Amino acid sequence: MVQDLLIAVVAAAAVGALYLAAAARVVRQYERGVVLRLGRLRDEVRPPGFTMVLPGVDRLRKVNMQIVTMPVPAQDGITRDNVTVRVDAVIYFKVVDPASAVVEVEDYRFAVSQMAQTSLRSIIGKSDLDDLLSNREKLNQGLELMIDSPAVGWGVQIDRVEIKDVSLPETMKRSMARQAEADRERRARVINADAELQASKKLAEAASEMSTQPAALQLRLLQTVVAVAAEKNSTLVLPFPVELLRFLERAQQQGPPPEAVRPPERGEPLSPGAGDGAPESQPLTDGSPEPADSGAPAPRSSAARSEASAPAESRPRTDSEQYARH
Known about the structure:
By secondary structure, the protein is an alpha+beta fold. Helices cover 48% and strands 20% of the residues. The protein has helices at residues 2-23, 98-103, 108-126, 129-134, 136-151, 170-212, 214-229, 242-253, 302-309, 319-325, and strands spanning 24-27, 31-37, 40-46, 49-52, 58-64, 68-78, 84-95, 156-167. A three-stranded antiparallel beta sheet has the order 3-2-5. A three-stranded antiparallel beta sheet has the order 6-7-8. Helix 3 (108-126) packs antiparallel against helix 5 (136-151). The chain is rod-shaped.
């Protein structure tokens, strides 16, 4: 009798252990449990930890509550300005309502992926190429709103959507490179022209200052010579400004300094002050010399007048004429 009782207790314990093993469930911290009893959804969502279900009656579905990172496959499309591009993106989402994620949609991951691809193609067709390349933040916000609208009914919350890469054709890349190069060259020319304008203004001010002091031009010329000589070239090019010629011309017009009177050499014509053109004191007929410093001309005798009116061959030559002849 006792033996039969022990066997019955052991059998009940084994059945209880098997039932407990079949009914026991463990829900991890980042999961939530959704129970379907005889195909009907239970209102309560099982929290993390140990939980029990009725074997054969209840069915437990575990839903991951972590943020899911899903890459969106690259989509080919034509932008609003008729440029063929290939765009891929990445989407971050998580489940906020486990019951809706199990009941409302068959596979919420596949549904979110297909909705992201469709929205991405729609964004490509509504945007310009410049917006895809430089204004991605606005496109990311629009893409997030387009995906989040239907995902709310699935118990899914879209956390973030990012356009990862935009692939362009090779011809478009070369065209954009030429455009960027032309823009760079335009800006370089504008900067160079601005520098030339500023330099011309400074040179005009320097020229106005040098015009007041002619010696400054000579100093500037010497500085140029020193700068060129420092290069140690075999050929020295020395600019000769016209202003220096004008300075030398003005200095020449002032006349040379007075020189000392020198006696005439042999064969050299006499100067007007030392020849026969200068008045000399000649003896008068009565033997009295004519004063040299008298202002009025002295009266000459008839013999002297006849001698002066006689031809040069008949009248006697003076000493200065004889010296000039020799």
